[in-house]
Structure formats: C-alpha cells, structure tokens
UniProtKB/TrEMBL annotation:
The chain crosses the membrane at residues 40-63. This is Uncharacterized protein. It comes from the Bacteria. It comes from Thermobifida cellulosilytica TB100. Residues 1-33 are annotated as: Disordered. The keyword Transmembrane applies.
C-alpha cells in the first residue's frame, strides 16, 4: 500500500514562496539627492533676497521727499514782556461800511510768558478771555471768547490784534461778527 499524499507543503519544493518577509512600510528613501535639494532652496532663497533688495532700493530712490511743513507762527514763548501788564483805552467801533456804531472802553490784562489774558468791555458790561493764537515780530493775535454778558448784546467771539508801534502803548484792532451777520471792527490805542 502506498502512503496517502501529505498535506504538508513544506515538503513540496515547488510550493515554496520566494517572499520570505513582508513589510507594510515602504523602504527608506535614498539620501543621495537631498543635498542637491538643500542647495537649490538656498540658491533660490538668496536670489529672491537679492531681487527684493534691488526692487526695494529702486522704490526708495523713486519715493518723493516729504514736503516740509509750512511754518506755523511761533506762540511757544507766550506773551512777551513789552505786551504784558494791564492796559486800557477807548475803542471806536464801526460796521463793515465804515459807519460809526459806538465807542467803548476796554481794560485788558495780559500775563507775561503765558498765552492768556482777560478783557473787560465797559460800559458794555461784557467780559471775556483772550488766548494768544499768533505771534509775529510786529504783532500778537488773540481769540476773544465772551464769558459774561448779562444783557446779551456783546459779540461772543472775535479776534484781537495788538501791535506796539510806540513803546508804552498798544494799537488795538478788534474784529467780530454780530448776531445779525455784520462785521464790526473796533480800533483804539491802549496805555
């Protein structure tokens, strides 16, 4: 009797697999070309930096110079000594057609080194503050803002210009617009 065929494949030489071990992971990559890639990135980066620097330099060269700021009148030093103190005088007011309106007296107090002062308009019974807004070699310009007017007949805001042509006196020009829209100008000499 012959023996039955065996179910063991290891005995059969034709059934042997050429794959001995199987891996689920790919084999490692070669590092042979990675140095070329690094050099390429470095060269491209350096070229880009050179191009950006050249473009930036060209744009900077073409960029216009900023225009200088217009000179503002100097107000930083405040009211000079020759304008400081208490002044008073008669003002003659006229309208924009030159027609006389009224005469009044002003008492003006200016504090040296500051940009402020006070004004009393008599007999109009008005009071206000003056704030230095412009100072030139020949004049001071103030904004006047009313702080007291019980009869509501004074001009609320106006501009006062003072100049000293003769030492010890101030030439004053007070310009404002009435509630009706009429420009009123008052001039006088203060001592």
């Amino acid at each position: 009797m012959t023996a039955p065929p065996s179910s063991d494949r290891s005995e059969c030489p034709a059934a042997v697999s050429p794959i001995r071990e199987m891996s689920l992971w790919p084999p490692p990559r070669s590092t042979r070309h990675s140095n070329r890639r690094s050099r390429l990135v470095l060269v491209v980066g350096a070229a880009a930096a050179v191009v950006l620097a050249a473009v930036g330099g060209a744009l900077w060269a073409l960029w216009p110079e900023p225009e200088p700021e217009p000179e503002q009148p100097a107000v930083s030093e405040g009211i000079p000594e020759e304008y400081a103190g208490s002044w008073s005088g008669e003002m003659a007011q006229h309208d924009e057609n030159g027609e006389p309106v009224t005469e009044w007296i002003v008492r003006l107090k200016l504090d040296e080194g500051t940009d402020r002062g006070s004004a009393d308009l008599l007999p109009l019974d008005c009071r206000g503050t003056v704030v230095l807004t412009e100072q030139t070699e020949t004049s001071l310009v103030f904004d006047y803002a009313e702080t007291y007017d019980p009869e509501d007949h004074c001009i609320d805001e106006s501009v006062l210009t003072l100049s000293q042509q003769v030492p010890g006196t101030l030439e004053a020009e007070w310009v404002g617009t009435s509630r009706e829209g009429t420009v009123m100008t008052s001039t006088g000499t203060l001592k």
